[in-house]
Design goal:
3-stranded antiparallel β-sheet, 3-stranded parallel β-sheet, 359 residues, 12 strands, alpha/beta
């Protein structure tokens, strides 16, 4: 039995989204429940949009809510040579091919699909063509040779068996014409090289999983276990996006939500254990399992977060509450006056019965 290893793999292209925090939490809890390791992989290959400040913000946000990763951060951009090497191995094995379609050709294929109101799928023109016919002035991309016949089944720990017609997965690009790897190649190679045993991520990744499984099979690597968790929706039932208010951790810490309360709320957002509502950190690790994750999207409800926070304010040790309050004031309210500290400390038992947030 391999030691359980999970990972959280955000892109540092913006502040950490609340859905990402829950994904990280589920991965971290599962690995700790199984006495395994939890890793943080920074997927920073989008050079234009990736920023060091976002990377630092992601790491700080996870620490704030109590999620610490094992070992150093794994930086994807430092591993690109490994990804390119695998693309070349796939070419050698005949599991990938060079595609010489020009940008114009691809654009006109997309346009035709749009006119017919059907999803665009690359027409596999270069799949079996002889490279002697290749135009001299086109730099090729490398495409993976996806299965054309039959169906594939994903044995998912949350969704159950998910079946797909193989011909719906196009021959996807694994190396762009500038020689840089694409997401599905990089993610599959990194997961293999990091010895991941369990991939727990949002169910918007299901189609990527089918593509990545084909890369694993072509390379004859042992497959990890997959679990796709439903997304978080707004209270109106729409998919929560980074542009929504209250979608990042900072939105919550600013209004005085405490890390333990938010972590407890996110744990219960789409996961349950008997009819228990309040979990200490140790209990979260002890009881967490993949079987308790529901199949339907969860709705983010600020009133529930506030009532969870109120519970924590009322029941937390007063010294701890005092420290959190002082810390909060120093960060968000530009310091607290020294001579008021004693007065605040004496008034806490009265104040905490009236408050839903540290603010």
């Amino acid at each position: 039995m391999k030691k359980v290893a999970t990972r959280f793999a955000p892109s540092p292209t913006g502040p950490l989204h609340i859905g990402g925090v829950r994904t990280a939490l589920f991965n971290w809890l599962y690995s700790k429940n199984q006495n395994g390791n939890f890793y943080l992989r920074i997927e920073d290959t989008d050079k234009e949009r990736s920023k060091e400040e976002y990377k630092n913000q992601i790491i700080k946000s996870l620490q704030w809510i109590g999620i610490n990763h094992d070992g150093a951060e794994y930086i994807q951009s430092q591993k690109i040579d490994n990804h390119i090497k695998v693309a070349n191995e796939l070419l050698k094995k005949g599991s990938a091919y060079r595609c010489y379609c020009s940008t114009e050709e691809i654009e006109s294929q997309k346009k035709r699909a749009k006119q017919k109101k059907i999803p665009y799928v690359y027409d596999r023109k270069w799949r079996d063509k002889n490279e002697n016919e290749a135009p001299k002035d086109v730099k090729p991309v490398i495409r993976f040779k996806s299965k054309i016949d039959g169906t594939s089944i994903l044995k998912d720990k949350v969704q159950g068996n998910v079946e797909i017609e193989n011909n719906t997965i196009e021959d996807f690009v694994i190396l762009r014409n500038d020689g840089t790897p694409t997401y599905n190649l990089s993610a599959a190679v990194d997961d293999h090289q990091m010895n991941m045993t369990h991939i727990i991520r949002g169910d918007d990744h299901k189609i990527n999983t089918f593509k990545q499984i084909q890369i694993y099979e072509a390379m004859e690597w042992a497959l990890p276990t997959f679990a796709h968790i439903p997304l978080i929706h707004t209270i109106e039932g729409k998919k929560l996006s980074k542009r929504d208010k209250a979608s990042t951790l900072e939105d919550y810490s600013k209004i005085g939500i405490m890390p333990d309360a938010l972590r407890n709320y996110l744990l219960r957002l789409g996961w349950s254990y008997e009819d228990k509502e309040i979990f200490t950190l140790d209990e979260s690790v002890k009881y967490f399992n993949l079987e308790g994750i529901g199949k339907s999207p969860s709705k983010l409800d600020l009133s529930r977060i506030l009532s969870m926070n109120e519970h924590y304010i009322k029941s937390i040790d007063e010294n701890e509450l005092f420290n959190q309050l002082i810390n909060y004031c120093e960060i968000f309210k530009n310091k607290i006056i020294e001579e008021k500290k004693d007065k605040i400390k004496k008034s806490l038992s009265f104040l905490k019965n009236k408050a839903k947030t540290l603010e």
